[in-house]
Specification:
It is built from seven helices and eight strands. By secondary structure, it is an alpha/beta fold. Strands 1-8-7-6-5-2-3-4 form an eight-stranded mixed beta sheet, sandwiched between helices. The longest helix has about 35 residues, at about 200-230. It is globular, with a radius of gyration of 17 Å. The termini are far apart. The structure holds 5-O-phosphono-beta-D-ribofuranosylamine.
Amino acid sequence: MKQDNKEYMKYNLSYDLNEQSLISPLDSISPLFEPKIRLGILASGNGSNFEYIIKSIQTKQLYAEISILIVNNPNCLAIKKAIKYKIPYVIINHRDCKSRFEHDMLVMKKLEDFSVELVVMAGWMRIVGEEIINKFENRLINIHPSLLPSFKGVDAIQQAIDKRVTITGCTVHYVQKEVDSGLIIIQAAVPINENDNKETLKKRIQNMEHIILPLAIAKVAKNLRTKFKDNK
Ligand code: GRF
């Protein structure tokens, strides 16, 4: 681990890696690209990942702008964060739609209206349909609180505790039709301690999520920009 931490320090990052955690791959660290990537964030809950994306942009670790936050739940705390940081947001409540398809179409239209290049599902508690997946091929990513392919689906942290594994973590991956199954972009491992309960473990996993999600965004953005250059 010591060796790995030195590796991180070489890149002059402003965060300290917890000695007991491991991020892989290391080549995900702060890749450079331009121009800024335009992000659309989908969130349903507290929005802590959303807030850390904002902070990474503010501290210039991520060269991006958030074009729009879309939430499906009018009570979600992510809205408060959008207001605090003056990020445009819209509520598209799935309960007001007749079908999942109708909801997906409204979400997709909004992403297009705001010229979003990369869509980040940061605690989006909905399964997205094929139309969005195809429209944003290689431009739609999700964060999941386990080391995929273990513990897909709901309550991944409790699943890991129940199985008595000693290491779990979090994963950022591309979204494909099968839930929590797309190509993995970056992962962080988090040990489960004997005294851990769901809340203590969740806190440590989320600390790592807040680090790897901006790194994954930068990595995907760099790929998109490189592709664009090659196509010219
Ligand atoms: C995260 O733990 C993420 O892995 C999962 O939903 C949670 C969202 O947390 N998909 P927050 O809303 O970003 O605080």
